[in-house]
Amino acid sequence: MQHYKVRITATAFRDIDRIADYHLMRVGPNSAETITDKLLDTISLLADSPFLGTLHSDPFLAERDYRKLLCKDYVCIYRVVDDTVFVYRVVNGRMDYPKLLY
To answer: What is the mean pLDDT of residues 54-75?
Structure first.
């Protein structure tokens, strides 16, 4: 089985930091740590299963092979390029996030 490299962009890391900050302020440090671990663990699954997430439903993003992987209330937006998975954004699934990638 092929093992893929997973690269999280600086923007996606900032997204994860903002999510952790939100949880820290609203619920506390345990929640911030838990959600950060959950997001990173979910993203790490892409190393062995890069097509785990579905092709994005937004036509513009789907045409460019963007995929989405759900993790609790959040969506990890990524693309598989050769042997590497690039995670571009990690956002709340309730927001209008596709335009962030246009």
So the answer is: 94
